Amino acid sequence: MSERNAVTVIGLGPMGRALASAFLGAGHPTTVWNRTPGKDEDLVARGAMRAGSPEEAVAASPLTVVCVVNYDASDAVLRRGPVAAALEGRTVVNLSADTPDRARESAAWAAGHGIGYLDGAIMTPAPTIGTADAVLLHSGPEGLHQAHRETLEALGGRQTYLGEEIGRAAAYDIALLDIFWTAMTGYAHALAVARAEGITAQELAPFAGGIATIMPPLFEKSAALVDKGDYTDEINPITSAASTMAHIVHHSEAHGIDASVMRAAEGLARRVIGAGHGADGLLRITELLNPR
Ligand code: NDP
C-alpha cells in the first residue's frame, strides 16, 4: 500500500491527464474518470484505477480534483444525487476555469451537501504540471487547504494559497487571463500586419520577445502608484500612445486588415484624453473603466 493519500481526478482533457499523471508520478493512488471513455489508457497502464462512474470515482478518495472545461461541465458531473451523496464528508478541489461567482455558488452548493470545497486556478500549460514551472492558485477554507496541501504539492511548481474567500483564485485567473488573451490577440494581429509587409513570424518573433520583456518592469513599477490613483507618466503620455495606435489602425486598414482590437484600445485612450487626462499614462484607462 502506498503511504501517499489517494486522490481522484475527474476530467481527462489535456490538463486533467497532466494532473493525474503528476499524482501517479508522486506515488498517490489515483482514480480517474472522464465523461467520454478512452482517455485514460496511458494512465491506467501506469497504475491509475479506472472508475466506472463519477460516484465510484469520488468514493475512492478523500480528495477529488475536478478539471473540466468550465463550471457548467463540473456541475453536470457533480450535481447529481448519487455523486453528491458519495462526496459527503469528502473534499473537492475544482481546478476548472470559470468566474468567481460560479466558484462562490458552487461552494454554497457544496456546503449544503456536507462537502468540503476548495477552488483553484492553473496558470501554466499542461506540460508544466508536476514540474518546477507549474503555477497554481488556491482559495477556500484554510484548514481544508492545509489538510490537502501535501497531496496538491504533487502538481509541482509555485502554488499560492490566496485566502479563505472562495472566489479569489478565479478572480486572479480572470484578471491574468485578461492580460494573456488580449496580448496574444495583439500578437496575432501583429503577425497579420507584419505579413502584409513581407515580414515572417520567424523574423518578427525575436523582436516580439523583446517587446514582451518591457512589460513586467512596467507592471512592477506602476502597481503601487495605480493603487494610489497616480497615473502620472512623463515619458509616455497617453496622447502619444493614442497617436501610435492610430498609425496601427490606419496601416492595418490600408492593407484591408481588421483593426477592431486596436480601434477599441485607441477609443479608450481618446476617452481618457477627452476627460482631460492626456498628460497621464496609458494606465489611466483603469480609472476610466472602474473609478476607485
Ligand atoms: P478542455 O478545457 O477542453 O476540457 C475538456 C474536459 O472537459 C474533458 O474532460 C471533457 O470531457 C470535459 N467536459 C466538457 N464538457 C463536459 C460536460 N458537459 N460534462 C462532463 N465533462 C465535460 O481541456 P483541458 O483539460 O485543457 O482544460 C481543463 C480545464 O483546465 C479548463 O478549465 C482550462 O481552462 C484549464 N486549463 C487548461 C490549460 C491547458 O494547458 N490545457 C492551462 C490552464 C488551465 P470529454 O472528454 O467527455 O469531452
Identify every distinct bound molecule in the structure, by name, code or SMILES. NADPH dihydro-nicotinamide-adenine-dinucleotide phosphate
Q: Radius of gyration in whole Å, from Cα?
A: 23 Å
Strand order, biggest sheet? 3-2-1-4-5-6-7-8
Structural class: alpha/beta
Indicate the overall shape: elongated
Distance between the termini: 56 Å
The CATH homologous superfamily name of the largest domain equals NAD(P)-binding Rossmann-like Domain
Give unreliable regions as ranges: none
CATH domain class name of the largest domain: Alpha Beta
The CATH topology assignment of the largest domain is Rossmann fold
Largest sheet: 8 strands, mixed
> What CATH architecture of the largest domain would you give?
3-Layer(aba) Sandwich
Pfam family, one: RedAm-like_C
Protein name: Dehydrogenase
Keywords: Oxidoreductase
GO molecular function, one term: NADP binding
Summarize the helices and strands and which ones pair or pack.
Elements: E1 7-10, H1 14-25, E2 30-33, H2 41-45, E3 49-50, H3 54-59, E4 63-66, H4 71-78, H5 81-87, E5 91-94, H6 100-112, E6 116-122, E7 135-139, H7 142-152, E8 158-161, H8 168-196, H9 201-228, H10 238-254, H11 260-274, H12 284-289
Parallel strand pairs: 1-2, 1-4, 2-3, 4-5, 5-6, 7-8
Antiparallel strand pairs: 6-7
The protein binds NADPH dihydro-nicotinamide-adenine-dinucleotide phosphate.
NADPH dihydro-nicotinamide-adenine-dinucleotide phosphate is lined by residues 11-16, 34-36, 39, 67-70, 73, 76-77, 96-97, 122, 125-126.
